[in-house]
Specification:
Four copies of one chain form a homotetramer. Chain A is of the alpha+beta class. Chain A folds into three domains: 82 residues, Butyryl-Coa Dehydrogenase, subunit A, domain 1, CATH 1.10.540.10; 114 residues, Butyryl-CoA Dehydrogenase, subunit A, domain 2 (Beta Barrel); 151 residues, Up-down Bundle (Butyryl-CoA Dehydrogenase, subunit A, domain 3). Chain A has 13 helices and eleven strands. In chain A, helix 6 packs antiparallel against helix 7 and helix 6 packs antiparallel against helix 8. Chain A is globular, with a radius of gyration of 21 Å. The model of chain A has no long low-confidence stretch (mean pLDDT 96).
Chain lengths: 394, 394, 394, 394
């Protein structure tokens, strides 16, 4: 258990003050300070809450971690201070649930301890991310080894990672959903190259805060590096989505709450003319009121989904998991847009975290499946209740 | 306790089939059938759930009745079949909480029993409804009596009502919020005239389903007809708002769910061409997916507000009570609009209830305070937390 | 030429005052007054401007009539006073362009003179209106005659019409776009029945202001009643769309301008409290400012389309004709919605024309092809320029 | 006259290919190539079209330059290649219209020739930009000189500029609109410091593509450096707005058209699965169709405003000048958002110019007066026609 008031106070006192260093000078510049905070977090016993105690975590259930993820989401470097940042936490959950004993010892333990970082290489530039069974990276079976060749991008946090979990086709002749496997590939394996940190929304970033383009040219790894069964790659990718969605959405709620507080504070303290405050304008009041209602509704929807995952399992909750993706991403974008508008010129500078989120969370409507895809999935599920089975999406 | 599955089944089997009579021919035409359903409701022990048992009700708490109100909201004549229709249920709650013993015997008992109907006369055509302390109807104190003169409109359900609760100025020299009182006025009192049932959105309506313009010309009523203290009219009006808001919002959720089901059913069964169904269109799927997420979020927000009212009292929950007004009204309008669009030409006919709701629930963004007013209230409350006290709304 | 200032003044002085009679009591009640205005219009030489002089009109080109249609659109009964109301003006244009000499004498002349009314029977309840080649009404060739059997609805203004132009399949084995023909059917032909005036948005209406459901049971008409070639029905229907779209869209612009003026007037004259006017609220000001910009932009887009039709022909202008449909319909709905909100309770009554338009122009996004269909058409046309030929719409 | 087809071809062939250098490596990296293009532009006689021939320009009227500005707007470095980039072109127009003979020789001539750059220092961090008469920078009259002290920010393109035109209070006791003057200040004047290039939306930028924070500490300039009369600063600032608005809005239209073309091209060429193209999705088609209509309408609205400025003067066209600000900025943001969504992950990278515009044109709704301010101005003007004079904005 983490007391949320204490946690929020910790975030305000210890992490938010580091933000400007990150926003102005990048991840490398703030990293020493982040490491210092990580030590404080471990001392308080708050380290990596979703991981089990034997891995240094707290064994915290999803519905409880949801609130922690919100609290950490209030600053762009919150999650990384608690070692629950994407994609590492997702990789930890995957390895914990489906990795072998050797995987646990070699890759999971140091990752959970925060001694290494990792990445997840799935998306390919030549194929639409909205169709995850459509890829070209091939893992050729050479007996004891796979020889992997392919082209990936948007491999977040590859820069400085110890290993990648690579989605690659191992069974090219199987049905589309049974073709790929997930394979652990050390980043220093011969043939594995970071082509570039892609310049995304104005900055290539560095370290954890980056998105790489990778080339894999006949990279050899032992077949024991495969996670789970051969051909299970897509199924495992689906499985990480449920809890991951809750993490993400609650992080977005945290962003929303921070943007909301910044907006209210600006409105309450900025003078338009002597004695006439910005917050007296009805358009500003409506930006506040609409945001307040939307954020509160969004949080309830996410918590409801988390509860359903816990009570009924991910499969039964898949509509809820789909809905929160596009609903919360929409709220996030509107709240950030309003907060920027209320800040005026200050809002487009990097003197507040609003610009960072406005830029980098634009992708919230795109990654993990574009909103349009999730809407199709939800609607087709609903239509089946009324007797229509839409096979080919339109 | 009402089993919700049974209730939904009852609504589908007994009330929905009466809808077309109401939509095509009006309230008078469907009234005999409604009376028949009311008898069935009483026999099942489901009568007027929020009223106490000694008044024939079930003493049902707000958080539980919320779900009942949703179930009844799925048809325009659901609430009236359970004697929980506005404005009667609000008047019952007011009389129950603040009426004298005589009021209980004379007015509340027959109302709760469904033997009479009532109305609530507050809005005046010459004054903005968004400013409820601004009115001209005057109750002159003549010793034992009040002599009331004024002009009211949007007095819903006045046609056929036994009495009106009239908001009138009794203390013209008091502070604005302390000027008015609420007074019971029999509809057959000399000087009380229904000028017309206002033609609203294409129909004047009749009986319960109408909105009257009233003239009060020196209407005499005993001072004992006043509810609560002199000058308490505005305070009492505020008090009825909290539970009333939950009733309304859950009714709107019920409307949304019905519209949603109609939309899905149409999408699943309407052919665009042989073998090509409407529901295969992505724009229709997105209408469904957006509606599903918005309705679910809206319901959670209303239930959360109801819980806060019950746990912390109406005063502490006033932000939540304000938020659900504009948030749910917005969802309601969008869902109805999408459901109509998916129905095409059928959607604008009165062959479904969609047109009725599209027309008559347009007022949801206006009555009980326009959305803009509630947004101002919520924002000003929030801004106070940040140190800004906005007095005059802008 | 019609001087627009004079025309606007005429509409304000002679037609707008009749509006309330129409809105409260229906088309029959206002008809005598409309007939009186029609006489005045003829005396001024303003009768039926798009028709040629020999038919009593003015031979006015489309780009000029566009402005007239806007001026008349400011009141629901404007067009009918000038004998340019839909569907009659569309039928006149069709008969004038493609009718035989006998059609001109028998049907067009009395119609253009305003001595008769007509209707256009195309839509069928069992088939999606968005797919106009999909219909069941069959005109069986019996030698000299067609024997027509079918089911139509949304046949606007059938009540009291002298004849219908009926779209019916004459060539069931032809390609889909070549199956149907347009055939003149007298309303008093044996076997032609008006089942009902459909109750649309709260009212069945009457006379010109109605939408009928029709049954044709082996209705016999001479084959000479067919307009144009056998199988040309769909092509002729397309052809009427271009000028008809301009008429409709400029009428919508007229509605927008009237709603805008009502909104401004209400904002400028309604007190929220002594000395504090509604128009001082920023939300009201933004409703006005957004509407002003959208209406002005919409008008320019329609006038640009009209010019392209005149200069390059309807085929070359088909993207413009498609775009104005959904763009202007969207503006129309938003402007009406804002005008109602600014009016508060008054806005939902029929004491202004806002409610009438809010209700009956909801269909603007549905009739003549739902907005979604036109968007698909525009996009597919644009995508062809980039090398993608989308055949089956998604 | 510039042939627009030739111009568009030139932009495509000579400027667009330089874009990636600018987007990936910054303004300094692309500057040599830009200088080369500038020489080509001069050779073609297309240099700085709005300036008169004797200053090396073409003396092109506003309505004609509007189309040129659109063509150049299709790439972020288009305007700078023709020496018509903000803020220089605005400064040229100001100096040309109101500068002394000495100003023309010393500052305007080299600026128009492209040998220098300039900036415009108006906004101050401590004061709301939406209230331009509210500022603290003071120009103290010391006889022959002004001694200027103040704090400015968002002084675009200050980095590398030869001079700034500084708005400073010269008459602190005058009425608010008569307090300030515009004064030419060489950037190398003692006491003038660039504190930083503000990091805006992820990048501090450099050279022309930057926004500086400036400190003026008792900067001395001769009083002859003042442009126009003492206290005329605000009036001159207003005057530059009209043509400047047309330049900006047509540049935005150019951005929209480029984003639209990129969106269509992506939709037409990106496969979702073998043989199934992105452009077959209805949601993509609707993004295209909505954008096409909105861009076309926006262009017509801007051209109409330009024509009104030319025919009736800026004062008579001020509503049009206000409307296009918020209308076109809204279209710009929506079109960019849709284009990014259609591009998926590629859309958030800097591999296309979409990210640059998404980030840097977010300010379009803020600079030159936030949209909210322009809406208030338009509405108040409209309300005056209906008899309401709103003095204090709400």
């Amino acid at each position: 258990m983490i007391n949320l008031d204490e946690l929020n106070q910790f975030v305000r006192a210890e992490i938010v003050p580091l933000e400007q260093r990150f926003l102005q000078d990048g991840f490398g510049a703030v990293l020493p300070a982040v490491e210092h905070v990580r030590t404080m977090v471990q001392q308080r016993g708050w380290w990596c809450p979703p991981m089990p105690v034997n891995l240094g975590g707290m064994g915290m259930p999803l519905t409880e971690f949801a609130h922690v993820s919100e609290a950490l989401g209030r600053t762009p470097i919150g999650h990384v201070c608690f070692n629950v940042q994407a994609p590492d936490i997702g990789n930890m959950e995957l390895l914990h649930g489906h990795g072998s004993t050797a995987h646990h010892a070699d890759w999971l333990a140091p990752l959970a301890a925060g001694r290494t970082r990792s990445c997840f290489a799935m998306t390919e530039p030549e194929f639409a991310g909205s169709n995850p069974v459509h890829m070209a990276t091939l893992a050729r079976d050479t007996g004891d080894h796979y020889e992997i060749t392919g082209h990936k991008w948007f491999t977040s946090a590859a820069d400085g990672a110890a290993f990648a979990i690579v989605m690659a086709v191992t069974n090219p002749d199987a049905a589309p959903h049974l073709r790929a496997s997930q394979i652990i590939v050390p980043m220093d394996a011969p043939g594995m190259t970071i082509v570039r940190n892609i310049k995304v929304m104005g900055e290539p970033g560095e370290g954890w805060a980056s998105h790489a383009e990778l080339l894999l040219d006949r990279v050899k790894v032992p077949k024991t590096n495969r996670i789970g069964a051969e051909g299970a790659g897509f199924t495992l990718a689906q499985e990480r989505l449920g809890p991951g969605r809750i993490h993400h959405c609650m992080r977005w709620i945290g962003i929303c709450e921070r943007a909301y507080a910044l907006m209210c504070e600006r409105a309450a303290t900025r003078a338009l003319a002597p004695g006439r405050m910005l917050g007296e304008k009805q358009s500003v009041q409506h930006a506040i009121a609409d945001s307040r209602a939307e954020i509160s509704a969004a949080r309830l929807l996410v918590l409801d989904a988390a509860e359903k995952i816990e009570k009924r399992g991910q499969r039964e909750a898949r509509i809820e998991i789909g809905m929160i993706k596009y609903f919360v991403a929409g709220v996030l974008q509107r709240v950030l847009d309003r907060a920027i508008q209320v800040h005026g010129a200050l809002g487009v500078t990097d003197d507040t975290p609003l610009s960072y989120w406005y830029r980098h969370e634009r992708a919230a409507r795109i990654y993990d499946g574009a909103d349009e895809v999730h809407k199709n999935v939800v609607a087709r599920h609903e239509l089946r209740k009324f007797g229509l089975d839409v096979r080919s999406e339109a």
